[in-house]
Amino acid sequence: MTLTFPAPSKDKAELETGPAFTPRFDEKGLVTAVVTDARDGELLMVAHMNAEALALTIETGIAHYYSRSRNSLWKKGESSGNTQAVQEIRTDCDQDAIWLKVTVAGHDATCHTGRRSCFYRTVGVENGKARVTITDEHRHFDPAQIYAEKKG
Amino acid sequence: MTLTFPAPSKDKAELETGPAFTPRFDEKGLVTAVVTDARDGELLMVAHMNAEALALTIETGIAHYYSRSRNSLWKKGESSGNTQAVQEIRTDCDQDAIWLKVTVAGHDATCHTGRRSCFYRTVGVENGKARVTITDEHRHFDPAQIYAEKKG
Q1: I want to staple B83 with a disulfide (CB 3.0 to 4.6 A). Which of A101, B33, B41, B77 is the partner?
Q2: What's the domain count of chain A?
Q3: Which CATH number do you get for residue B28?
Q4: Residues spanned by the domain of B72
Q5: If chain A, 152 residues long, is cut into consecutive pieces of 10 residues, what is the mean pLDDT of each piece?
Q6: In chain B, which among 32-71 make CB contacts under 8 A with chain A?
Q7: Is B40 annotated as a binding residue?
Q8: CA triplet B52, B40, A114: central angle to 5 degrees?
Q9: Taking a contact as any Cβ pair under 8 Å apart, which residues of chain B between 67 and 106 contact chain A?
Q10: Is the per-residue pLDDT at B152 higher than 50?
Q11: Domain-embedded: residue B80
Q12: Within a domain: residue B131?
């Protein structure tokens, strides 16, 4: 990893309009990453990146994240083959969020459940209770098979 | 606020496929909210919601967030008029992120800089340094005027 990120400016104008990319990592050293499909803009997933994951993503063109559950660097798709080739990287006004437009390899599935997107459910209210409804049941791969194979 | 959210199940299958909406608020009581334009899917902003903001959003159909900088409930667009009418709410596999598809009122601008989207810059590398490039200079409103008016 050779790419490093300078500390964010305290000057709001510099942060919003200056030429330097100075991501505002939170107290855990993470920024939020929003991932959409470069093909049609569909939201695929939301994840987090530390400086190492962000630098690797920029340098290799393949999306890397930081897994908060495993506390480790996470090359997305390493097990399932559904790696993400980054077509464009954007950041927001206060530089604490990253937007990746990606092309998904493998089964064209981003969710570990085998679905194309992690956002396969709508939220609504039913009899005064908040409920979710699955709108995408199509599995691009069988998680039990794919993740078992890679473990072996 | 009448809508409440039960604690998330510890059973992964229940969380991923059960009918209950049980958002996984983090240790600060927040979930990440990704906001896209219902018209064309453009990513407009990333923000955070506490239970109150999420319940108000579901109940009123107008997007509410929790401002981490002001530590308070934030009805988006209250000052600028650029409120967000929610067309659809989605959640992801582990229910720690929310996706709002919205129609923006007012100037059709979501960013406080007056731009349509907060993601008005691409990220790249120039001479070994990470740089940002502004790709959208169009301001839908003049922030100095709009926010000054509302303060007065």
Answers
A1: B77
A2: 1
A3: 3.10.20.810
A4: 12-108
A5: 90 96 97 98 98 98 96 96 98 98 97 97 96 97 85 44
A6: 32, 34, 36, 40-43, 45-46, 58-59
A7: no
A8: 75
A9: 88-94, 97-99
A10: no
A11: yes
A12: no
